[in-house]
Amino acid sequence: MSSVFQRRDMYDSVVVDREQDVVLTTGQLYGLQVRREVDRSFKPVIPFAPHLFGSGKTRFVKSYLELLKSMGERALIGPENISDYEKDRRRSFLDKLHEAVLLYVDMRHLEPTNPIEEKRNLKWAVHYLLFKSACLQSGQGQPDPDECFKVFKLRTDVLIKKIREVFNLRTDQFLLVAFDEVGVLDTRGKFFDLEVNDEGRVRPYNDFFGILWGLCLEDNVFFIVVGKSEGLSIHNYAASVSRVELTFIPLSPLEKDSIIEHLEKSSSSMFTGSPKVSQILCHQHFATNELAELLLELTGGVPGLLVKAINYLLHCKLSQDHLLLSKESFWMIMNDSIATNYCVDPLLPRLSSLSKTRQRLLKMLTLLALYRIRFELDELVHLSSTSDVFLFDLVTDMCFYRRLIVDENHQERYEVLIPKLLIRYIEQSVKNDRLEWLLLQTLKSQPVEFFYESKCRVFEGLVATMFYLHFCYHPTDSLMFSTLGQLSSVWNEMNLKFSSESTAYYMKSIHYTRSTSEVERTTFGINDWKEIVEEMLEFEKIYIPFEPTSRSPDILFKLHGRTSGQNLIVGIACKGRWSSNGIRWNEIVDEACKFLQPVHDQVVTVHPTVHDQVVTVHPTLHCMLIIMSTKLSTSVATDLNHSSHCYSFGDRVAGVFTIPLNCELIILSESDVENFIGKDILSSLRSAFKSTDNPHSRSIGISTVQEMVLSLSKNI
Fold first, then answer.
1. Which runs of E-coded beta strand occur in 133-290?
2. Which of 100, 416, 652, 714 lies in disulfide reach of 368, CB 3.0 to 4.6 Å?
3. From CA 256, how far away is CA 252, in angstroms rounded?
């Protein structure tokens, strides 16, 4: 199957949703031209995309000029307030850029090159590769390296002049050079004599960008560099040593609307009439937006994985003309190992051979992805007492992806994306690590839209994970379970041991109203608790509502009674209070009113049913709400004597709410919450959340995330 696709793509892929990348790249090329005109001792700027397979690097650089033309003036003249003179200057630059010729250079063809005395000279190898690529791209034969060296003599001005002659370019016409697969320098640097720095280390990228610095001194020549590499390490070192300023091209994963555009614009000549992909794969009962949602769910919007998945679906359609896709058939096809192996083939060797060090870091990265903790560009991870690595580079090294987030203050940060396509293969490498398995399964279970829409939900995520681990591994010696048992006799009657390993699932949210349209609704209404409890919530699974909502607890689960006579539905309200103001009585009452009362009215008070004269007596259902707050107000803490407390049937809460029949409200003390989560972790979270609802990793602290991993691991 794989060889079929390697031989020929099934469709002509159209590049979409790269406006942000075009604007950034064009701005950097313009910046190079301005610096070149102002000061001949300038530091060149070069757009740089050090990303993993599938991020769209090659397609972007090959399509850049076409994308540029389609954007028009928006590529360089935005909404910012600039003078008419500057606008005219930018228009003139754009006009010339539209006439540019793109020279594509594949660095995989870099090799020691004759003459013999220059074979270990990286500069000559790069110069010859540039000229050879130009000759081959223009339809000429491969030039003789010995003859070329006699002419060029390592002179950049002669090299650029000869390339212009090959393409028949005017001296004032722009030449745009795109270096692809620059990551080969990781392994091929050993074939060349490279500069040794003061620490006795060789850095091939420093030599490479030093060569580009010399080429940038030539007029009307511009560069884009892409390829998998330790991008941030190279970025920082090149800036200080090579006199080159590298600017990252984000190439973020695509979102749903962009995938729809891709499906509707791309066509396949493998089918009669070269129809659009959306016309081939979709039909009256399976719309394009449905296919886009499924592809986003599977690939995370990573372009390379997306294209491979579409290729596979088109092959299935070509070989089975009667195939009508649906949500069910899509997953049946794409969950097959042949399909997944094809899609992730370039990553398989690395995914299947994770070292112990990388396995240890894997849990930290999975937590960052799961809890949507953003990180800054220059954030460091300590591998040992003497070794650090940039988190930006670690994400690439681990075969994961980054998504650029620009907040309301125009601050740029990144999120870790682990596509669901990869999770199966990561699991195989860490099959004996139950915590990593849980985190990956939880990541797999959550809807991918959560990645694009949600706020950081660290606290409830930690609580849900801790409860799961206690249910699975330590139900009898859990201090939290012991506390709940002392407070509630109903809790003691429950089976607290999960018999099968589950994960935290993300259910549809509960809101004030429900959708009445024919389209499948994405939320439950406040009168839907019977459906939620009986149809949505399964035993031995822990649920978190898909969206943060004010109409339900943050965590939900159902427990079996030790006898068949009673079951328990539990809601946990995670109240992260990170400032001096603790949770007040009115907030506690509000939580009880929105959960205990409607669940009691709609579910708990169910009467026996009669069908064909057979009376069915349903198990007694109890309902418990647990208030887990990081800080209680002074009045609440004082009234509870700084201890955890349980309110049962008939008890009055704050004098305004009466606990319904078969319901309980438990308010945990600050000390019990602290013992459950961990004092140091809560202290770090309190510092992080003081000023924002969505803190990034630096404010939380990578050390805190690593501490979370250690804390969770101790519960297995």
1. 175-180, 221-226, 245-248
2. 416
3. 13
3-state secondary structure of 456: coil
As a residue count, the chain comes to: 716
The CA–CA distances, whole Å, from 228 to 97, 179, 373, 396 equal 27, 12, 24, 8
C-alpha distances out from residue 423 to 329, 394, 441, Å: 20, 17, 8
Backbone conformation region of residue 699, classed left if phi is above 0, alpha if psi is from -120 to 50, else beta: alpha
- pLDDT at position 3 is 45
Are 545 and 585 within 8 A, CB to CB? no
Tokens 């950081």, located at residue: 456
Q: Which residues contact 614 (CB under 8 A, 6 or more apart)?
A: none
Please give the Cα distance from 569 to 560 (Å, whole number).
Answer: 9
Three-state DSSP at 527 gives: coil
Report the C-alpha gap between 439 and 445 in whole angstroms.
10
Site of tokens 């603790």 = 582
- What are the structure tokens assigned to 300, written together? 């995370």
Burial of 95 (0-12, 13-18, 19+ CB in 10 A): exposed
Predicted local confidence at residue 613, as pLDDT: 55
Enter the tokens of residue 121. 């000279």
Query: How many of the other CB atoms lie within 10 Å of CB of 85?
Result: 8
**What confidence score (pLDDT) does residue 450 get?**
60
Contact 94, 69 (CB under 8 A): no
**Cβ count within 10 A of residue 449:** 17
Torsion of CA 150, 213, 31, 57, to 10 degrees: 90
Residues 199-235: tens digit of each pLDDT: 667 788 888 999 999 999 999 999 999 988 878 888 8
Stated pTM of the model? 0.86
Between 145-152 and 122-137, two packed helices, what is the crossing angle to 10 degrees? 110
Report d(CA 237, CA 232) in Å as an integer: 8
Would the CA dihedral through 492, 494, 499, 505 be positive or negative?
A: negative
3-state SS class at 557: strand
Residue 578: predicted pLDDT: 76
Long-range contacts of residues 270-273, Cβ cutoff 8 Å, at least 24 apart = 270/10, 270/11, 270/314, 270/318, 271/318
DSSP 3-state of 694: coil
How high is the pLDDT of residue 134? Answer: 97
**pLDDT < 50: residue spans in the chain:** 1-5, 7, 514-521, 610, 615
Q: How far is CA 597 from the centre of its chain?
A: 39
The DSSP annotation for 44-87 comes to: -EEEEE---TTSSHHHHHHHHHHHHHHHGGGGT--SS---HHHH
Cα three-residue angle 123-128-130, rounded to 5 degrees: 95
69 alpha carbon, distance to own chain's centre: 30
CA 43 – CA 34 distance, rounded (Å): 11
Tokens matching residue 173: 């016409």
Helices 256-265 and 303-319: angle between axes, nearest 10 degrees:
50
